[in-house]
Amino acid sequence: MICHWEKIDGFRTLNELERFITWIEGQIQVGNAYEVPVDCRYAGEMMPERWFVCKDCQSKWRLVFPDPGYFSGLFCLVEGEK
Ligand SMILES: [Zn+2]
How many angstroms separate the alpha carbon of residue 69 from the centre of ligand 1? Predict the structure, then answer.
């Protein structure tokens, strides 16, 4: 099953990140998603990250927060998990 969630390869603005967080938290509130503990991190310990599961297909996704000037952030499927 292909997940209907879409990869976000970098947030261009803080507003875009905030809109995404509002969306994912809305998905949790209506029962389409839930949050799980972060297992293996995308980057080092210092990079804030949250993991979410899509209830439709049980795929696991990571949100890696941006680090302005270095990294624009990411929302993507956790590799090796479906
Ligand atoms: Zn899905």
Answer: 31
Q: Which residues pair with 73 in a beta bridge?
A: none
**Of 2, 8, 47, nearest to 24 (Cα)?**
8
Report how far ligand 1's centroid is from the alpha carbon of 2 (Å).
Answer: 7
- Asked if 73 contacts 17 with a C-beta cutoff of 8 angstroms, the reply is yes
Q: What is the DSSP letter of 63?
A: E
pTM of the model: 0.90
Per-residue pLDDT of 61-82, as tens digits, reads 999 999 988 999 999 999 775 4
| Helix (H), strand (E) at residue 17 | helix 14-29
Q: Which amino acid is residue 80, in one-letter code?
A: G
| 43 CA → ligand 1 middle, Å | 24
Please give the distance, rounded to the nearest whole angstrom, from the Cα atom of residue 61 to the centre of ligand 1: 9
